[in-house]
Amino acid sequence: MKLLPHPLYLAGEFCKTSLSTQIKNPYSGKPVAETFLGTWKEVNISVQKALEVRKALQETPSYKKSGILHQIASEIEKNRQHLAGIITSECAKPLKLSLAEVDRAVFTFQTAAEEAKRLPKEYIDLDWMPAGENKEGLVKYFPLGIIAGFTPFNFPLNLVAHKVAPAIAAGCPIIIKPSPKTPLSALELAKIIDKTPLSIGAFSVIPLRNEDAHLFTDDDRIQMLSFTGSPSVGWMLKEKAGKKKVVLELGGNAGVIVSDDCDLNLAVKKCVGGGFSYSGQTCIHTQRIYVHKNIFSNFTGMFLKGVKNLKAGDPTDPATDISVMIDEPAARRTETWVKEAVKAGAKILCGGKRKGNFFEPTVLTNTDNAMNVCSEEVFAPVVVLEPYDTFEKAVAMVNDSEFGLQAGVFTDNQKRINHAFSNLDVGGVIINNVPNFRMDHMPYGGIKNSGLGREGVKYAIVEMMEPRLLVMDK
Amino acid sequence: MKLLPHPLYLAGEFCKTSLSTQIKNPYSGKPVAETFLGTWKEVNISVQKALEVRKALQETPSYKKSGILHQIASEIEKNRQHLAGIITSECAKPLKLSLAEVDRAVFTFQTAAEEAKRLPKEYIDLDWMPAGENKEGLVKYFPLGIIAGFTPFNFPLNLVAHKVAPAIAAGCPIIIKPSPKTPLSALELAKIIDKTPLSIGAFSVIPLRNEDAHLFTDDDRIQMLSFTGSPSVGWMLKEKAGKKKVVLELGGNAGVIVSDDCDLNLAVKKCVGGGFSYSGQTCIHTQRIYVHKNIFSNFTGMFLKGVKNLKAGDPTDPATDISVMIDEPAARRTETWVKEAVKAGAKILCGGKRKGNFFEPTVLTNTDNAMNVCSEEVFAPVVVLEPYDTFEKAVAMVNDSEFGLQAGVFTDNQKRINHAFSNLDVGGVIINNVPNFRMDHMPYGGIKNSGLGREGVKYAIVEMMEPRLLVMDK
Amino acid sequence: MKLLPHPLYLAGEFCKTSLSTQIKNPYSGKPVAETFLGTWKEVNISVQKALEVRKALQETPSYKKSGILHQIASEIEKNRQHLAGIITSECAKPLKLSLAEVDRAVFTFQTAAEEAKRLPKEYIDLDWMPAGENKEGLVKYFPLGIIAGFTPFNFPLNLVAHKVAPAIAAGCPIIIKPSPKTPLSALELAKIIDKTPLSIGAFSVIPLRNEDAHLFTDDDRIQMLSFTGSPSVGWMLKEKAGKKKVVLELGGNAGVIVSDDCDLNLAVKKCVGGGFSYSGQTCIHTQRIYVHKNIFSNFTGMFLKGVKNLKAGDPTDPATDISVMIDEPAARRTETWVKEAVKAGAKILCGGKRKGNFFEPTVLTNTDNAMNVCSEEVFAPVVVLEPYDTFEKAVAMVNDSEFGLQAGVFTDNQKRINHAFSNLDVGGVIINNVPNFRMDHMPYGGIKNSGLGREGVKYAIVEMMEPRLLVMDK
Amino acid sequence: MKLLPHPLYLAGEFCKTSLSTQIKNPYSGKPVAETFLGTWKEVNISVQKALEVRKALQETPSYKKSGILHQIASEIEKNRQHLAGIITSECAKPLKLSLAEVDRAVFTFQTAAEEAKRLPKEYIDLDWMPAGENKEGLVKYFPLGIIAGFTPFNFPLNLVAHKVAPAIAAGCPIIIKPSPKTPLSALELAKIIDKTPLSIGAFSVIPLRNEDAHLFTDDDRIQMLSFTGSPSVGWMLKEKAGKKKVVLELGGNAGVIVSDDCDLNLAVKKCVGGGFSYSGQTCIHTQRIYVHKNIFSNFTGMFLKGVKNLKAGDPTDPATDISVMIDEPAARRTETWVKEAVKAGAKILCGGKRKGNFFEPTVLTNTDNAMNVCSEEVFAPVVVLEPYDTFEKAVAMVNDSEFGLQAGVFTDNQKRINHAFSNLDVGGVIINNVPNFRMDHMPYGGIKNSGLGREGVKYAIVEMMEPRLLVMDK
Known about the structure:
The structure is a homotetramer.
Chain A: E1 5-6, E2 8-10, E3 13-15, E4 19-24, E5 31-37, H1 40-59, H2 62-78, H3 80-91, H4 95-115, E6 121-125, E7 135-143, E8 146-150, H5 158-170, E9 174-177, H6 184-194, E10 203-205, H7 214-217, E11 222-228, H8 231-239, E12 245-249, E13 255-258, H9 264-276, E14 288-292, H10 293-308, H11 328-343, E15 347-350, E16 354-355, E17 358-359, E18 362-365, H12 372-375, E19 382-388, H13 391-399, E20 403-404, E21 406-410, H14 414-423, E22 428-431, E23 447-448, E24 451-452, H15 458-463, E25 465-473
Parallel strand pairs in A: 1-5, 8-9, 8-11, 9-10, 11-12, 13-14, 13-21, 14-19, 18-19, 21-22
Antiparallel strand pairs in A: 2-3, 4-5, 6-7, 7-25, 12-24, 15-18, 16-17, 20-23
């Protein structure tokens, strides 16, 4: 069977290159599409076209930008099933989660449509000293310039939306380098955007071999790198970025605290979802669960029961909760880490086995921070469960990490909430929910090794703009 | 002994009128000063001078307004003991509270000095529809015009500060009508302000007989009435205000909820203070205390013990907690209300007796909302103590009132805090403190019959200004 | 022919009353619909139902409110032609203007859908003094309560939208009393809203005889009167409002300054539109045009030529610029004022004649401020044209009025723009456009006798809400 | 004569090191003080102490931080003459400018005292989708961590203030590496700060050899580098910064446009000041002046006359306008660049000669962008004067640069102002003043090669903090 070719999207043109490659369905192992990898030539054209359109984008009135973004949202909504099918086919995400991702992408574009009319602006007094008498100031934000957006395999539509939608709102041309494993959703989005009146050159999608990422970092015409992916790659890009601004949305080993005053049923239910949703392959995957010692045994029992009820299998089945991992190397790495942990004293409460690229939902205890399953980003359906003594110690356990993206805390006690908010070294503290919680308009991003800068539509827009002050007579 | 005359302050001139009157010390009963009441003539001059200075005030750069406000704060600070002595002498406030009031007045002017440089300003996009293409807008706030400020006897310095400081920051001329019982603090403030470079006409202090308040309400040259005082007078002013803007800071019968999960020692300590500080003569006096039935008996015992420890006596004694009320009619009214309540079934847990204008710290229980001590503003050292069943019912009990200024809630439970915030019909919900809590920069004001509009420096400034939009090409 | 009955909309029910009345097309003079006037009974039911739904509205999540508002916008858009036809039939507005009004109503509801998710919220530090250590504050805005909205005949759809859309966003039940001359658009809107999931009781439309307005002002269950209409009625309502909050959007005699440095073609074109659009029957009608003496003669010639080109006639004709006034009494009053002006020395440059309820586009000069055509709101196709000497004098001429809604200034000179912004006593200064300029999301409202408070979706929402502070431990 | 030793300030201790060095007065050439250079040991101690105090600083209430900042401002004010003398002695700044710098430092600390109470905070709705129902969010800013501040020689007090004051307000420990040429002002500031209750470890001053800057860039315990200085050093630091945040305040070759509609006297006066103040050794030195061809000849004559009137000489003389440059290498480099320019066709209108480290105020014309005096940061009393044709071309000429800090535009024409604001690629556009204009509270910083991030107290504070979101039930 001839595969459907998915040409890359180069500033208004769908075009093929000599570097053809196949995208395989991770579940079936069968090829689902033919795509093409870009080279210097394509990068150069996309940047050149972006340069040409910069001024026009900056001057586009907000109702036009807003209209384009609404149109994109509306088209995604119309193609909900189709797009969810593509997501599932390229990254083996269970269909119900793929549908939820499409809904979130609609929301991301709608929100950007609204924020495009509300770009930050300041009007300030300057007469605080005699030297400023009769002067006042306006601060307007201008688009930073050309953005290269690097997106990961795990949310192949909505994490592209989180870069493209703010860029359109900000008036920045953007070139997306999707994960070479999952470029199809981004290319489908290109088809939708191509039909809008967005200026040619404002948007390109160029799948690249990862080793060709330097084509972006080396290019002085690009002003910003916006990267979502693994910490090691992200920090390396920052070092090579030269004068460019860099925003990094990386991962972590997110922790959750289950306090003894909490709603236990709620905590269990949310932790099962947080630990195993999309096989743990999300930046804010619930990796470490710290439970107060008095309820540890209860929690563990209920949690394991919840894990047992997860339905594994074909991701296209609407009932499936958990399916295969993105590829076999990923599953093998997980297997190694779990084995190492067990060797070092960890105890497997359930799961632990690999079959091809499927890895069982796995719960460990008796772990310590020297084990990779604790200290590194596991990015797999593996959860560590440990008891704690006092709330303060639980906070310290969550903080004992190089990462700091989000953390969850189950409690209704205001003093504990305050202690957690003041002391958890993370970008977001989620009360009565798991770290996985994300509304696409909320400020989102990590500290420590988990990243730099913030996304969340409005916040991403601000990162893509720079202020300019006008000092004028009054 | 010849009394020191305190002339009124008329747009830069200290002057006497034919209506001389004596201010008596409520504790000693002895005259402490001679003051003068204004008439139509003085009101007219003050308004005329205010009119003349309006434009100059509007155009004063912020560093000058800020400098004047800092100077006033600094002078009040230097005269701390002197001013506290005057407060105590005219309203029988215990000296330690008078000193605290002076400190707050310093803070109020300092805060206004800072806010004078931060007047609200907006810079907005107008190109949300094609009709607004290439247009954008600036919103600047301009002073509303001449303000008549009515201030009560209970904070004769800081509640004057809460009108004068924002008016200077906003650039509005203001004429203060202090309580005829306690005009001395305002007139002392006038001496301080008179030495600053504030433009002549921007500030006047004219004590008036209460029946002459119509001189302000009838005057079309005045744009705003800012009244702090009793609900009946406040609402009457609103009806007579014509086209003027009206801000009312009135009182209430503030309630507090003591939840069974709270820190009981803290709750008792704060409630004793809240119930009897300055003999309950404050707008946010803790009048009604609702205690969970399981801890009611405990709380009551501890509370009564705390009340017993209050030191009554001479307000000039630094150790005194509670002294006489403002005058004998006030104490008699209190006596009547307590007697009526007892007749209708209330039980006195302590106090209840009057001696001249002294009224004992009084605690009642077995009350119901038909009694004045519950439903009206008691404005006296009288507290009602009742048990409650569920938190929701306690919230309903606090809400069962025509008033809604502030309420206190002692709890650390987040669900209860949220329920209280969402459902208490008041201007402010104070967690783990009594309704009396006020920081002078926080938004402050009541709903229902407790008032209209907000004070709290920044918020008062906004009330004294009006927005003007500039639509311009971009 | 039997007239289509348009029952009033009473909290989810379309119902008739005994007070039937006919709506006539002002152009054809023929009846177009039968409507029904409400009585105390209907007002009482609407208020009662509104009371019952208050709490539910307050607790509605923003995505639901936003969804309802988007649905209304979308339905209005779908019925664009139909609704424009109704507007034209009940108020004789030329069809192209009616279509523009429908578009604006769509925008008003869309904007409210967005603002419903962005209600004002503050998070503040309280530790500015030791007394506030470890405390911080949240300010959330809560719906004010039941609103009675009074709307005028001249924008029978969009000025209803300007009250209903913010009320839904704010979570306030609202009862609309449309102009008894033009209730049909509001009743059509009711049909649209009735199909949304908006809670029953949140919205009613009750046409009343104007003399029955007291049914709202007297009702203590209503918290706010939001009135758009004539100054005399508005200010009278304020006096009778008791404790209610009142927002008044009244009219004026808006002035425009044509500076000698401006783009004359632009100024002429905009002034012709501003002076005669919908026969001058708008609050921000360009009534007084002040032109620099050096260009006065040029401007006058070009302006009169522009006026001559206006096409008068049947409002249903898409080419019609100007049609009849709302009724003959209005046209007769206009005739009287023009005649009086002429008698007092004014010169008619064009127009001046009445035929039934049609009044010719009329331009006067040689006028003075003693004439009603200058000092009162003419609300008719009458414009006064006068030369001025210096820019400062032109500003003073615009300010020589009891009103202050908006003013236009044609100039590119920054010093003049600044002078105008600092000195024109109005709610909005429009550079290089006429006072008629309004984007529905901009802050809009008058000072002096032109009103109280602001509309403009976000600003209207704030007027319909009140702040509540939560002081909490941190 | 024995020199006064100025020990470095190491977390509460003034201490000497083995690396002693002399500071010479650039004007007299005589040593004025003995200072000491730090080594790894001192850097390590300062960072260690900073680490220990981080948590305490984070938890300091705002009134304490504000009090410390006010105390510093007040002490600087008391030592005005003394500090100005030190500035003049170490960097040869004319005394009147040194006094102005001290006044600005007072203002910088006062402003930080006010902003310390107004740290950014957000309170947001999360219920924009069903998944966020009943959730809301708080965003609080937390101190980023330890900051290394690099400050230049040209404002040895106020540019230190611009790092230290925001750091104290933000709650970040800061270690200042002053210019090794001018460490004395920073060390005087240390004496003042040492007397405040600021926690030990929150502030250190360690002069270092420039080649030892890597001691900061290599240290992973430091979270942020805040650098003010030359572009080449700044961008190099960014490359070596690893995971640290970097803020760069660099220089440029600022341009000014003198439009034919402007106030010529004002433009000349400001340009003379902007071109030669402190011998052009400021980041926003007016280097390039573009004058409309019609007024070029007039402007040139007036400008040269103004330059001639500048009084050169001893910087301690209160009348002196211009004195020596910081050192002879700087003057020699300037000489070389001017000679190269002349060789390539430039014409000297005045000045051009060097004597030791004094360089005459120099005006060139007939230049082009290949010359260093145009394209590089000249940082010397050298100005280039060129005519332009159309305003659009003048904007393009200013933009034809690798830098983009600030630009000045003399005009009153709104269309030109708008064109300049929309098109000048700089951080700040100054109307009717030179690029040198800076109020210390305004947002300040460059784009292109002129820097990254913003200073200006409030803006600097934000750069030193990171947001943390709390998602909570409501």
